[in-house]
Amino acid sequence: QVSLVESGGGSVRPGGSLRVSCSASGSVVGLTSMAWYRQAPGNNKREFVARAVTGGNPEYGDAVKGRFTISRNGATNTVIANLQMVNLEPEDTAVYYCNLNWQGGAVWGQGIQVNVSS
Description:
Blueprint: E1 3-8, E2 10-12, E3 18-25, E4 31-39, E5 47-53, E6 59-60, E7 68-74, E8 78-85, E9 94-102, E10 105-108, E11 112-116
Parallel strand pairs: 2-11
Antiparallel strand pairs: 1-3, 3-8, 4-5, 4-9, 5-6, 7-8, 9-10, 9-11
């Protein structure tokens, strides 16, 4: 069984930086991608943020291009995806969710809060 644990996040002023991390445990065979989505307050939809694709280039949502960087490390039993966020804006305030896709299916993390305010 594959599970995800998110860490990092917190509160920062506009223009600041934060990093969120997602650690996957379990036997992740045939990893396809790890991604981050976010859900802003009062919004019932999750917005795509970034994706690290096995064997491919990272992908980013339009709202975060040039400010966020996704990286992925590890192999089958321990995989970590980091999302480095710089020049944060109040509009980046949201719960950030990690998503992992592998040959066995897909799994979501519980979410971690990021607040950007002055």
